[in-house]
Amino acid sequence: MTTRRTTTGAAGAVSPSAAPDSLPPVLAEVVRSGFVEGRHRGSLVLLGADGGVEFALGDVDVPVFPRSSNKPLQAAAVLRAGVELSGERLALAAASHSGEAFHLDLVQKMLAESGLTADDLLNPADLPLDRVEAETYLAAGRVRDRVTMNCSGKHAAMLAACARNGWQLGTYLEPSHPLQRLVAEVVEEASGERVAAVGTDGCGAPLMAIGLTGLARAFRHFVLAEPGTAERRVADAMRAHPEYVAGTRRADTWLMREVPGALSKMGAEAVQAVALADGRALAFKVDDGGLRALGPVLARALGLLGVEGPVVARIGRAPLLGGDAEVGEVRAVF
User: Fold this and answer.
1) Please, is 211 exposed, middle or buried when counting C-beta atoms within 10 Å of its C-beta (0-12, 13-18, 19+)?
2) So what's the pLDDT on residue 286?
3) Disulfide: which of 96, 212, 277, 279 matches 60 by Cβ 3.0-4.6 Å?
């Protein structure tokens, strides 16, 4: 692969010094009945096994909020705080879970093991993230709940860290809280960047902005870390129990299950980061947050890294329907 950096589109590269208000490149097109009815723009970076940038589209150094792609880093901070999580529990601490029964059961167990209850969670109440699970959940007459929200595993782990260290439970989402200061340390160490801004994620937790290159390097750092370190423990747990990181109908699960050594985590607003066992890595963000573009862009990026096979085709498939018929698709265009 050759390094490619553009701010105008896949067909015409321009200098990185282009005007800051120039449009980012188109990563995916929405094609219905042979007609392009929409475009998703964004930025993407691919790292080689040596950690160097091999391919880039858009401005991959401008800070973005990684959203839930930050969760492995947050889970590593929980381990640094002395919490002894492993296996499915550690995978769930790094999860945007689908709200399947096995997810919800384990969140409850994690809370109970620390002497906590769902009332201690400060994430908002929500329905299961997975549409099939949400329909089943509502059909059973159930209502939005904090445990059901996709970030509840992360919050249960954060509360466990507070309980272990005698830190205040009611303020664990404040950026100045000792746990969140640990998170900031992990983010900066793993990414090799300073946190450019701190915001509030949808679950209420602090959200730390870094560039896409830094995000890809953080994932690379996790898969290459020495065994026994917090970073490697998180990566190993996620890869061993991918269904707890996402769910049975989710691309992160499929990829980690089918590609040996792959570490994968998506985030809201169409952010994605992946690292392979040999240190190759990728990160991208679709500017408009269109999740329908995430699969096709991810599949194309994986292809450029040399990852092939049925799982890549499955992830990349994003059909459009007209009535009950398939009449188009969302497709990557780089």
Assistant:
1) buried
2) 98
3) 212
How far is residue 41's CA from residue 292's CA, in Å, rounded to a whole number? Answer: 12
Q: Give the separation between CA 22 and CA 172, rounded to whole angstroms.
A: 40
Closest CA to 155 of 181, 179, 131, 128: 179
3-state SS class at 226: coil
Dihedral sign, Cα of residue 34, residue 9, residue 201, residue 242 = positive
pLDDT in tens, 209-248: 999 999 999 999 999 999 999 999 999 999 999 999 999 9
Dihedral (C-alpha) 296, 299, 304, 307: value to the nearest 10 degrees?
-170
Q: What are phi and psi of 303, to 5 degrees?
A: -60, -40
Amino acid at the residue 157: A
Helix, strand, coil fractions of the chain, as percent rounded to 5: 40, 20, 40
State the pLDDT at residue 22: 85
Mapped onto helix, strand or coil, the DSSP state of residue 16 is coil
Q: Read off the DSSP letter of residue 285.
A: E
Tokens of 117: 């209850």
Tokens of 136: 């089943």
Q: Report whether pLDDT(188) > 60.
A: yes
> Per residue in 245-288, pLDDT tens?
999 999 999 999 999 999 999 999 999 999 999 999 999 999 99
Question: pLDDT value at position 203?
Answer: 98
Residue 4 has pLDDT above 70, yes or no: no
**What region does 129 belong to: left with phi over 0, alpha with psi -120 to 50, or beta?**
alpha
Burial class (CB in 10 A: 0-12, 13-18, 19+), 266: buried
State pLDDT tens for residues 295-331. Answer: 999 999 999 999 999 999 999 999 999 999 999 999 9
Instruction: Supply φ then ψ for residue 73, to 5 degrees.
Output: -70, -40
C-alpha span between 174 and 134 (Å, rounded): 30
The angle formed by the CA atoms of residues 259, 262 and 264, to the nearest 5 degrees, is 115
